[in-house]
Amino acid sequence: MEIIGNGFIAQNLATIAHRHPAATVVAAGVSSTGVRAPEEFAREEALVRETTDRCHRTGRLIVYLSTASHAIYGTTEVALDEEAEVNPQSPYGRQKLKLERAVAESGARWLSLRLSHAVGRWQRSHQLLPSLVGQVRSGTVRLHRGAHRDLVDVADVVRAIDGLLAQGVRGEIVNIASGVPQPIETVVRGVEQRMGVAPRHEVIDTEPTLTRVSTAKLCGLLPPMRSVSEPDYLDRILDRYTSAY
User: Cβ–Cβ contacts within 10 Å for residue 153, how many?
Assistant: First the structure.
């Protein structure tokens, strides 16, 4: 497996690279969901288009890592699947959808994977769970009222990608998520309990966000992935990673 990118997902994927020599995974992109600079989006688009062209010429499979977050799906009342019509409201979401389409229309063999909020080893301090752990440790946590996040263990992301490639899944968009968006207050309480700390909460009133995506396609292709929707999944994630940051 050729892995383009050096973030924590790319580092975790390196553990299965030897199993998929004909795949190229694009695990790189703009620096954050809040990016609005045209030059950053232009660099990402150039990278993706160059990679898809090369994969087309050489017969390699391109695996594009997109997002299953609010950026593409928005706030949902029901679990949306990969075929749902979406209308991203942020530049980041519009970019991801644009590049998904570019990959699908490139002529290369392709697979696009929409990831929710992955957490796990080698995450950087500004990312969601390490940031919350740091805030709890500092004594003050800033919470956005009504915010929800669908957390998925990066180990399960790797397991899903490994399984999909092993099965030869091609020409599909697949959500890799738990399908269970968690109130951010619940995540913070879980971190506090494990750290034995009771920090002050600064609650910011914002538009509530709750994005629920369907994992039916993922679990249909890989039945063992149903484990990510089990009731104790958040507890397992927090038990595994809270002390790691």
Answer: 21
Closest residue by Cα to residue 155 from 185, 194, 123: 123
**CA gap 242, 121 in Å, rounded:** 10
Contact 63, 17 (CB under 8 A): no
Total domains, the chain: 1
**Helix axis angle, 91-104 to 38-58, nearest 10°:** 20
Q: Give pTM, 2 decimals.
A: 0.93
How many Cβ atoms from other residues are within 10 Å of residue 99's Cβ?
Answer: 22
CA quadruple 128, 233, 170, 21: dihedral, nearest 10: 70
Pull the structure tokens for residue 105.
């229309």
CATH number of the structural domain spanning residue 121: 3.40.50.720
CB count, 10 Å around CB of 12? 22
Range of the domain at 137: 2-244
pLDDT digits (tens, 9 = 90+) for 21-51: 999 999 987 656 666 778 888 899 999 999 9
